[in-house]
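Submission sheet (multi-component)
Chains listed below:
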Amino acid sequence: MQNKTRTALIAYAFLAPALILLAVFTFYPVIYGSYLGFTEYKAAQFAAGEAPRFIGVQNFIALFQDELFLKGLWNSIKYIAIVPALQIAALAIAVAVNRKLPFMAFFRAAYYVPVITSIATAAVMWDWIFQKEGTLNWVLQGLHIINSNSAFGWLNNEHTAIWALMLVTFWRGFGYYMVLYMGGLQAVPEEVEEAAYLDGATPFQTFWLVIVPMMRPTLLLCSLLSTFAAIRVLDEVVALTPGGGPLNSTYTALMYVYQKAFDGFNFDYGMASAAGLIIAVIGIGLSIVQFRLNREGEERA
Amino acid sequence: MSVTQDRIVQDEHKRAVARAKSKKLLNTILIYAFLVLVLVFAVFPFLWTLAISFTDKSATGGVSIYDFPGSLMPRQITIANFIEVFTQLKIAQPFWNSVVISLFTVVGTLIVSALAAYPLARMDFPGRNILFGAIIATLVLPTETAFIVNTMTLKNLANLPVIGGNNCFAPSSVAPYVCQGLGTYWSVVLPTIATGFGIFLLRQSYLSIPQALLEAARIDGATETQILWRIMIPLSMPAMTALGIFTLVNTWNAYVWPKIALLGAQNLEPMSIAVLKLKGQYNFDPFNIAAGAVIMMVPILIVFLSAQKLFLRGLDGAVK
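Outcome: structure written.
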């Protein structure tokens, strides 16, 4: 009996650092941050030691009347366009490097290098690539897709800036999802592929009708992860277009949170928290939709 | 008649085999072509930046990084840009900041995760499943507003004598709230060291250690601390290393959180912020920025290349 109590005490002592840190820096901010969304709370109040003032849904009403926030929200939703491109490419690349051919380990490692690149380094490199005189335009001119008169800076154009950021996200992400898909592919038994081949299926049919359905859990996980990443994108935006791009064309919803909370002279924690809450709710909603779609797909299959 | 027929069949078979062979060869060539194309996309930014960082900008007079394909292949190689970054742009301090912040975070994460993972994996106590569930829940919690509240918490923590120490410059009437957080390295480090990911990864590894080993140690009178230190940690070195490398890469590369946490304490800012500041300067010098970017990239690249298998396996284990 005493022994049991002792074990419990030791267990709690070992867990204490992790639990305290998680409570202070993860659980508490999620709960308190959600509450702040329904209050008026500016940095001045915080500095004066005042408590936040509960104002109900006023912040949310104000947000949906704020054109900048709506534009940010729309850009965040636009950013989800990256998901199918990223997932299809990552899966195709995973299938290609998964073969037992020479140099595959080298390709895999090289594709992963962008993943471990900091956004600071990536921003420096891609900024030059996107310049008017940069390599992207040089390549496009070389391929005769555009001529030298119509060259432009990709990040300085309101129609292309957000797509340029997506290209950076794509570049930094495909190696990560490739590794996850490789894990999924290795779980597909070789006999299944061989059986399909013997039944006269073409490689494409084998892939589409046999491998893809077996990869469903990995596909769902990866598309969920990248949808969340897309709706929460912040690094690329802050690093490459610090002000939110030409005519706020790259201004995303999370950037609104970031700016409201830490830019300018009167940080507005209440509004920022409310905006964060809206993004969180959209994220949760999207994941529910994706789960539903996946289950329906499974039932049909 | 039948001989010729036989031969026709044989020929046809041979041709079919040859066709299959050449088709396979064509397939292989296509795969490699595709992979090389992706390779160019993946590594081109690095190669170009590397070329720029080693270009002797004084040699040809008015060289531009935009002279293609000239700037992709520097004619005169020099390390002057790297020296300049250290002497004129004072990158040494941010580099040191990155080293300290990364070291604190990696060591902190390993200690906190190892301590928490042990009871969750191998001890029986009331509330274990609930606690484990709560820790796993942190992986999916919507944390969009966490960085706001965390800066407030850190600012309050600065008043505690134990943690204390706020070396931000004094607030003025123009910028009354300049200093977010503690104004110490701990502002960046503290909120990031306890993660559900780290605890989960080490717990999985502890679960695979044979129970007989633990029982033998207990019969010999080993305390739980000794078991953790002498058995669990040494035997789960691969998982510990993977977690360490993973944390190092994330911390070294982090940008937004350090920027928020150290707002007002510029002298503590890591490389990631310093490199981007160079880019934002009005009279920037691309050759020096490239050198800065390379300096920032190299340590992580070395870590990744030397522990690549472990690193990718660690990632794999985290998802399963």
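Remark: Chain B has two domains: 1-77, 91-270.
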